Amino acid sequence: MQNKDIWKKRLYVIIFQANTPAGRRFDIWLLLAIICSITVILFDSIYSVHQRAGTYLKAFEWFFTILFTIEYALRISVSPKKFHYVFSFFGIIDLLSILPSFLSLFFPQFQFLMVLRSMRLLRIFKIFHMRSFLIAIFYISEALRNSYRKIIVFMLFISLLVIIIGSLMNVIESDTPGFESIPNAIYWAVVTITTVGYGDVSPVTPLGKFLSIIVMLCGYGIIAVPTGIVTSELSKNRSKSKRNKRLTCNRCGQNDHYPDARYCYTCGDRLIDDP
């Protein structure tokens, strides 16, 4: 029993603690396996390659799937808080990376969802202690969370606008191919107001062309609105964090240093103030 506990602790250190030499080696090999697995999936999606080497690629896919399944099972077995890991962000990603392979046995169309395992590469920020990148991700996610209500109201307004424009174009261009129905005209309105401009449907009457010009010009301003909302929230969050900032040590993770501190009071490593 004691030996079993010792091995579980060793495995925990290797699998979960990237700041140890063994854990770092494990995570680097894991990243390489993920990259190889994604490469196999991408090549398998090319018809000519699949025709020539589909059997070998399928074998490689299942090799990596079994490997990641064993790793996922080990993570659960050695984790002291199993449910915490299973329902954590990385735990859900780890499950999604292997689930499509087994689902493809019953539903072949799920096979190429295996590219979801590319999300496991997000561990690179943790492995190589890229805390400045993690802080940037936090700022963006916080800004999106704080501004989603404004963006929803804005999108509702745009939805009503394209319905009105589409209805008008259906009346104005009733004899023009592509404007035979309001849904088709709404499709044209969405393509035009977002400045995508596929060109598969276009007005021919003078009034329809004039309305198109108005919609195109409005499109440039409309695109800037959600960008401005998110940028404003980013600026607010940045100002707030500057007032309440505490420096974090990249070596030991201690995150309670004052802004004017230069060295970590836990391990003595030099602190880097992220801009």
Give structural attributes.
275 residues, mainly alpha, Four Helix Bundle (Hemerythrin (Met), subunit A), Helix Hairpins, 3 domains
Description:
The longest helix has 42 residues, at 131-172. The chain has three domains: 2-128, Voltage-gated potassium channels. Chain C (Four Helix Bundle (Hemerythrin (Met), subunit A)), CATH 1.20.120; 132-243, Helix Hairpins (Orthogonal Bundle); 245-275. It is an all-alpha fold. The chain contains nine helices and no strands. The chain has helices at 2-16, 21-44, 47-78, 82-86, 89-103, 124-127, 131-172, 182-193, 206-243. Helix 1 crosses helix 3 and helix 7 packs across helix 8 (182-193).
Give a topology summary.
Layout: H1 2-16, H2 21-44, H3 47-78, H4 82-86, H5 89-103, H6 124-127, H7 131-172, H8 182-193, H9 206-243
Helix pairs in contact: 1-2, 1-3, 2-3, 3-5, 7-8, 7-9
Short synopsis of the structure:
It is built from nine helices and no strands. It has 275 residues and is mostly helical.
Secondary-structure element sequence? HHHHHHHHH
DSSP strand count: 0
Number of helix segments? Answer: 9
| CATH architecture name of the largest domain | Up-down Bundle
Please report which band the strand proportion falls in: under 5%, 5-15%, 15-25%, 25-35%, 35-45% or over 45%.
under 5%
Helix amount: 55-70%
Largest sheet: none
CATH class type of the largest domain: Mainly Alpha
| Overall residue-averaged pLDDT value | 81
